[in-house]
Amino acid sequence: MLWSDPENEPPKELRDMExxxxxxxxxxxxxxxxAMFVLGVH
Length: 42
Prior knowledge:
mainly alpha; 1 helix; about 0% strand; rod-shaped; transmembrane helix
């Protein structure tokens, strides 16, 4: 390993994708809860 090597950090695209996936997961979870609530009411 050289002293000039960059830090072990993922590229920006990877971090953006991770954020997007996390947001999509939260939205999906909320949608599932809402769907269960609606199905339970009817």
